[in-house]
Amino acid sequence: MVAAHYFDGRTSRAHPVELYVRDGQAVLQDAGGDELRHAPLASLRVSERIRRGPRLVTFDDGAYCEITDHAGFDAMLAATGHQEGWVSRAQNSWRLVGLSMLGLVLFVVISYFYLLPWTAVLVARTIPASLEAQLGRTTLDSLDRGIVKPSTLPAAEQQRIRDNFAALRRPADPGHDYQILFRHGGGIGANALALPGGTIVVTDELVKLLGTGPAMMGVLAHEASHVTQRHGLQQVFQASAVGALTAYFLGDVSSLLATVPTAMLAMRYSRDHEREADAFAVEVLRENRLPPSALADALQQLEDAHGARRKRSDRANRDSKEAEKDEEDGFFSTHPLTKERIDAIRNAR
Question: According to the UniProt entry, which residue ranges have a biased composition of type Basic and acidic residues (predicted)?
Answer without folding.
Answer: 314-324, 337-349
